[in-house]
């Protein structure tokens, strides 16, 4: 929803009226504009109150007590008509006569004086539009009610948020639950925790988004908060606490999008791929021995040759190492305790890169199985607050900072390995469909999903085994 230019949202979420003072008066008063608190967080109420301030704050010209905005000191006919329509109740009768309701004799004289100056009000485009809208509103029948609205309970939004958080607690990581709670509880407080949930509309969510922007939050953060709020509304609809809506009509959907400039900034300041020289420095056997523990070294090697996300690497179980058509493979799934994936497309099975076999990864898997272990990294807790891959992310980031430092723009981290793998495969001419299948990306073109088949394990292996970082594979000496 487009916000009128006479409204301004303060960091506290309260709407303010803003009126620019004409230049001729600005020089006299020393002010370029006037502002006044509207005392509400509701956008519709703020609009109504702001319109009532037009008469009081438009002091450039006055007609017998009726304030009218005038650009050059002389009000136009349209400006006077607009002011009358804002201040007086105007009725047009079937016989064509127009009646203006005034309060008292003096007020009546003001209105008559204005009418005399502008001529027949019924001829004015603004008034004609005003009357057409009034007639349409009076003649349009009320929409039939199917009775569903009355069946929705008037539950307070604060109570609904509590019920939602209690239901998703068991299936959410502690950190994720905390982030979701902060976002949705924040909206509930802005809207009013005691207010009825079923009355929440897109305007209310839009006002909250504007308040977040006014508070200095960046677009990516607001997008994330809106996604959590969207999930909350989906849940309330499913539970019967909110009127039914289609996917695109979710009150929190489409509230904010990335502009071209913001997308460019995200690319510029996001994770950067490593150069070949940086990879050789990071994976120098002696440097790795000094900078990373043995589990972290294995995690770094797996990330370098799979392009998997850090959580996908950290959560690997021994059951995730299987054979498909005689090809040793790794499964990325969410079946075991503590496992999760970013999206359905992230669930995949990929061949084990020959370099990882040479390093001794499969021998390590068999050794752990014989020892009665169930995970590739047995010492890692599955219920960590920041996720099962947080230990590896921190260890590798410290290693990167020590060895190669920071890039001029953007940042380095475990996710840089993912970008390095994708760009390395791209440089080798590996098709986009194969690259996407290997790293768990979804192609934007729907025709790929509709008409293409998934590559076989042998096809994937033949494509990715060409990825050679030309580094010394020393991990096998420790086996």
Written description of the protein model:
The chain is mainly α and 479 residues long. The chain has three domains: 7-139, no CATH class; 153-265, DNA polymerase, domain 1; 276-478, hpI Integrase, Chain A. It has helices at 23-29, 43-57, 77-87, 104-118, 125-139, 148-151, 157-168, 174-191, 202-214, 219-239, 260-269, 276-282, 285-291, 294-306, 310-314, 354-359, 361-370, 390-403, 414-427, 432-439, 446-451, 457-464, and strands at residues 7-9, 15-20, 33-37, 61-63, 66-68, 89-92, 98-101, 321-324, 327-332, 348-351. The radius of gyration is 32 Å and the shape is elongated. The relative contact order is 0.07.
**CATH architecture assignment name of the largest domain:** Orthogonal Bundle
Strand order of the largest sheet: 1-2-3
Helix content: 40-55%
Task: Decide which structural class fits the backbone.
Answer: mainly alpha
Provide the residue-averaged pLDDT.
80
What amount of the residues lies in strands? 5-15%
CATH superfamily of the largest domain: Intergrase catalytic core
Globally, the shape reads elongated
CATH-defined topology of the largest domain = hpI Integrase, Chain A
State the major sheet: 3 strands, antiparallel
Terminal residue distance: 63 Å
Jot down its keywords.
single chain, 479 residues, mainly alpha, 22 helices, 10 strands
Quickly describe the structure.
With 479 residues, this protein is mainly alpha-helical. The protein has 22 helices and ten strands.
């Amino acid at each position: 929803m487009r916000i009128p230019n006479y409204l301004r949202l303060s960091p506290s979420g309260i709407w303010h009226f803003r009126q620019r003072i004409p230049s001729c008066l600005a020089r006299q008063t020393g002010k370029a504009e006037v502002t006044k608190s509207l005392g509400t967080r509701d956008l519709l109420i703020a609009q109504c109150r702001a319109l009532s301030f037009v008469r009081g704050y438009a002091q450039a010209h006055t007609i017998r007590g009726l304030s009218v905005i005038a650009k050059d000191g002389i009000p136009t006919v349209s400006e006077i008509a607009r002011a009358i329509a804002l201040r007086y109740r105007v009725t047009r009768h079937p016989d064509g006569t127009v009646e203006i309701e005034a309060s008292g004799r003096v007020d009546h004289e003001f209105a008559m004086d204005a009418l005399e100056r502008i001529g027949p009000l019924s001829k004015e485009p603004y008034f004609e539009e005003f009357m057409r809208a009034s007639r349409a509103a009076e003649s349009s029948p009320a929409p039939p009610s199917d009775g569903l609205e009355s069946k929705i309970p008037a539950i307070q939004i604060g109570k609904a948020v509590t019920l939602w958080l209690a239901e998703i607690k068991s299936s959410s990581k502690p950190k994720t639950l905390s982030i979701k709670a902060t976002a949705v509880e924040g909206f509930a407080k802005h809207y009013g925790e005691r207010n009825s949930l079923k009355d929440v509309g897109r305007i209310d969510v839009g006002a909250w988004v504007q308040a977040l922007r006014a508070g200095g939050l960046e677009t990516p953060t607001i997008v994330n908060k809106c996604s959590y709020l969207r999930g909350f509304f989906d849940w309330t609809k499913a539970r019967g606490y909110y009127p039914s809506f289609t996917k695109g009509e979710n009150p929190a959907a489409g509230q904010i999008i990335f502009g071209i400039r913001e997308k460019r900034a995200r690319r510029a300041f996001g994770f950067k791929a490593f150069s070949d020289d940086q990879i050789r420095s990071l994976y120098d056997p002696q440097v790795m021995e000094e900078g990373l523990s043995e589990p972290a070294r294995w995690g770094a090697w797996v990330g370098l040759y799979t392009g998997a996300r850090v959580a996908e690497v950290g959560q690997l179980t021994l059951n995730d190492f299987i054979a498909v058509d005689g090809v040793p493979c790794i499964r990325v799934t969410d079946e075991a305790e503590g496992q999760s994936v970013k999206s359905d497309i992230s669930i995949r099975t990929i061949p084990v890169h020959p370099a990882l076999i040479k390093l001794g990864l499969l021998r390590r898997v068999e050794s752990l199985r014989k020892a009665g272990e169930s995970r590739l990294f047995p010492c890692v807790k599955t219920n960590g607050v920041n996720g099962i891959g947080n230990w590896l992310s921190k260890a590798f980031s410290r290693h990167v900072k020590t060895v190669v430092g920071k890039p001029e723009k953007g940042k380095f981290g475990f996710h840089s390995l993912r970008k390095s793998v994708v760009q390395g495969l791209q440089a080798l001419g590996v098709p986009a469909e194969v690259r996407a299948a290997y790293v768990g990306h979804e192609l934007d073109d729907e025709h790929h999903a509709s008409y293409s088949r998934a590559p076989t394990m042998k096809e994937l292996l033949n494509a990715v085994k060409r990825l050679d970082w030309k580094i010394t594979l020393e991990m096998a000496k420790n086996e």
